[in-house]
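Thread: sanity check for a docking pose with 2-oxoglutaric acid

Original post by kr_44:
Hi all, I'm comparing my docking run against an independent structure prediction. Below are the sequence and the ligand SMILES. Could someone generate the full complex and paste the structure tokens? I mainly care about where the ligand ends up relative to the chain.
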Amino acid sequence: MEHPACILEDLKQFVVNDAPPTVYYLPDFISEDEESYLQQQVYKSPKTKWTQLSGRRLQNWGGLPHPKGMLAEKMPDWLHTYCGKISSLGAFSGKTANHVLVNEYKAGEGIMPHEDGPLYHPTVTTISLGSHTLLDFYAPVSIREGDAPQTEENRFLLSLLVKPRSLLILQDEMYQRLLHGIQPRAQDALTDKVANLSAAGASPGETLTRGTRVSLTEKTMEPQTKRWKGSACDADSWVAFPVLSDQQSQDVELVEAFAAPIVDKKETSRLLRELNAVRPLNGLQHVKRVRAVRGSGGPHPLEVLVCLVSDAPDLKVVSIDDLLPPDGVQRDGLGEPFVVKVPARPPLTRPQFELASKHWPTSFHEDKQVTVALRGELFGPLRKARMSAYMAAALTAAETGAALGMEAVG
Ligand SMILES: O=C(O)CCC(=O)C(=O)O
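Reply from moderator J.T.:
Ran it for you. Here is the predicted complex with 2-oxoglutaric acid included:
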């Protein structure tokens, strides 16, 4: 279907002028009935469609983005309709959105600052369902000398208040240069750092309590990776970030397990020995079996993993006796079980380790080179200057070749 090549003139009234170019905020883009319909469709989707990440759940629709182009999957009708509706605003320069991420955030959950990258047409559109959130924007890490420490706090620039049923469109600098994220908070105190307060019908000083928010993020996958225009090439103006494997870049996946308090500390070694024998945590060697309960003024300073929820005979069990075989583990010293989430895989990078440890203590064999690379410090100024020179030489050679009528290979 044909869509306008430019964003519709009518939408210009929704530009958020207090933010860098370009943000369109459309309150009440969908009706309450449409919101309920979309929520029903999201929650009706097969359970296998959800991926549990630390701090949110995710559904991926349309295919798997890949640098060589997306392995496309048919979009379900309920999403296809809304991809068409948004594309008909001209949000994707005549193209149709072909990829949707559905994120579900419970109150208190969020997403780390990130950029969506060059695999997509540089526009992202988001429909929000169920609750508001604050979407925060950050300057990227820069290596210019004399800058203040590059903490998240120092790089924070502005927030946008996205209310349920709204449509947010981000393009240009807001999409291509800035990072976006959502702080894991249950309440948002609105300040004048929220650039679209009046458009969202709110005022500074208000505090909004978050509920469960579902966001539908529609994008268009480019057929091939494109280099964004305007990326500078002098060695001081760029940072080399590593291209990590999928496993190294992904969020922390969690599995549910039963834990129980150790009510008698003196029984800890015996309990560990016996639990390891009757309920080994197969594939979870990275997870520490016992954790100290932080700042425990309470009666039980330690908790132990009993078994994975998937290993339990009956998911509704509440008693320790139902989780353990009659023999093999003396119950003395164990309290009643409860469900926790533990990291499903060993962390491969420091950010993954930090996130994983927030859920349950986890061991980490750090690859120092990856950590340094993630900080953008893998190459010193001399090596970067050399890289810039080689890249410039390659470009010159290509341009000269093209001028001589030679054909590019590779
Ligand atoms: O939920 C949102 O509004 C943001 C989602 C997002 O940034 C993402 O999926 O990459």
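The two ends are 34 Å apart (CA to CA). Hope that helps with the comparison, let us know if your pose agrees.
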